[in-house]
């Protein structure tokens, strides 16, 4: 989950390439988080019903229900329970070897573990069964992008978009990939497409913010992170990113507020603790309002 720079204005802001996924380096301010290819968890409101419990009840009633195992495996994956997800998805595939959705979900679990070869092999299996499965092209594209194999990634993303043109997540991941390649204008265009499809999609605003920050435009970056926070106020990553944008502009009091909020939301957040230590006691060197425009 990334990156690159060379133009003089980027060098001025000390944007540098890094070799780990999801990061865009920013001078002495640490790293901005992209939320990761494929979509990182954004805190969501949940209802009273426990969907994992519901799937478990279905399995208890019918232990050979491959669809139920696939459904519960996908839920485990969504909540980060990778071992449980793989157990259920293996069972789903054992019960129904042609259940292409289970291969895609298992591939996503492998991808979360960093096992990209195994992930791509599962996406290949899913597409061998269903060559028009947009989600598998999308997921395989993210796996290729994680390996910096951008040509293959783009082919898969383009195929996914052709099959599912209203899926904002695909456009967002194309934006992340282009941003990693230093193609800021193109990245922002794809982020805007994602937002046009779903104006409440917080990840796309975060992606646009990271792209602006990579380009040294911290004012606009802060505005985009603010939009992400307005949509998902409990998302600690967006607070961290906005704090680093403020810090880069010399707005240390605002940065401190966001770092503290991120730590409140996620007490073990190392980036928040490091940010608080960096900016505490510093006086603002700017006082202008930070309101991003269009992104």
Report on this structure.
With 295 residues, the chain is an all-alpha fold. The protein folds into two domains: 1-33 and 185-295, Alpha Horseshoe (Serine Threonine Protein Phosphatase 5, Tetratricopeptide repeat); 46-165, Alpha Horseshoe (Serine Threonine Protein Phosphatase 5, Tetratricopeptide repeat), CATH 1.25.40.10. Helices cover 64% and strands 2% of the residues. It contains 15 helices and two strands. The protein has helices at 8-12, 51-61, 66-78, 82-95, 100-112, 116-129, 134-146, 150-163, 168-180, 184-197, 202-214, 218-231, 236-249, 252-265, 270-279; strands spanning 23-25, 31-33. It is globular.
CATH architecture of the largest domain: Alpha Horseshoe
Radius of gyration: 20 Å
The secondary structure category is mainly alpha
Q: What's the domain count?
A: 2
Q: How helical, in percent, are the residues? A: 55-70%
- The count of helical stretches stands at 15
CATH superfamily placement of the largest domain: Tetratricopeptide repeat domain
- The multimeric state of the shown protein is single chain
Q: Quick one: CATH class of the largest domain?
A: Mainly Alpha
Run of helices and strands: HEEHHHHHHHHHHHHHH
Gross geometry: globular
Number of strands: 2
Strand order of the largest sheet: 1-2
Main sheet makeup: 2 strands, antiparallel
- First-residue to last-residue Cα separation: 22 Å
Could you tell me the mean pLDDT? 86
Fraction in beta strands? under 5%
Helix/strand layout:
Layout: H1 8-12, E1 23-25, E2 31-33, H2 51-61, H3 66-78, H4 82-95, H5 100-112, H6 116-129, H7 134-146, H8 150-163, H9 168-180, H10 184-197, H11 202-214, H12 218-231, H13 236-249, H14 252-265, H15 270-279
Antiparallel strand pairs: 1-2
């Amino acid at each position: 989950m990334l990156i690159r720079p060379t133009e003089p204005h980027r060098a001025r802001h000390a944007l540098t390439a890094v070799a780990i996924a999801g990061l865009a380096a920013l001078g002495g301010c640490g790293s901005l988080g992209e939320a990761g290819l494929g979509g990182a968890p954004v805190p969501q409101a949940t209802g009273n019903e426990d969907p994992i419990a519901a799937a478990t009840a279905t399995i208890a009633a019918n232990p050979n229900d491959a669809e139920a195992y696939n459904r519960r495996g996908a839920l485990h994956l969504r909540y980060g329970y990778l071992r449980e997800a793989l157990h259920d998805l293996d069972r789903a595939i054992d019960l129904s070897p042609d259940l292409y959705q289970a291969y895609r979900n298992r591939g996503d679990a492998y991808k979360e573990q960093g096992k990209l070869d195994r992930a791509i092999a599962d996406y290949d299996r899913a597409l061998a069964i269903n060559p028009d499965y947009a989600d598998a092209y999308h997921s395989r594209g993210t796996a290729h992008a994680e390996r910096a194999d951008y040509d293959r990634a783009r082919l898969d993303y383009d195929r996914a978009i052709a099959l599912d043109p209203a899926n904002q997540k695909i456009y967002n991941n194309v934006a992340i990939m282009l941003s990693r390649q230093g193609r800021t204008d193109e990245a922002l265009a794809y982020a805007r497409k994602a937002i046009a499809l779903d104006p409440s999609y917080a990840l796309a605003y975060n992606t646009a913010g990271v792209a602006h920050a990579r380009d040294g435009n911290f004012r606009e970056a802060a505005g985009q992170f603010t939009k992400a926070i307005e949509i998902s106020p409990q998302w600690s990553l967006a607070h961290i990113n906005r704090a680093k944008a403020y810090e880069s502009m010399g707005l240390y009091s605002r940065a401190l507020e966001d770092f503290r909020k991120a730590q409140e939301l996620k007490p073990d957040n190392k980036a928040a603790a490091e940010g608080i230590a960096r900016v505490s006691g510093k006086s603002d060197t700017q006082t202008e309002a930070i309101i991003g425009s269009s992104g």
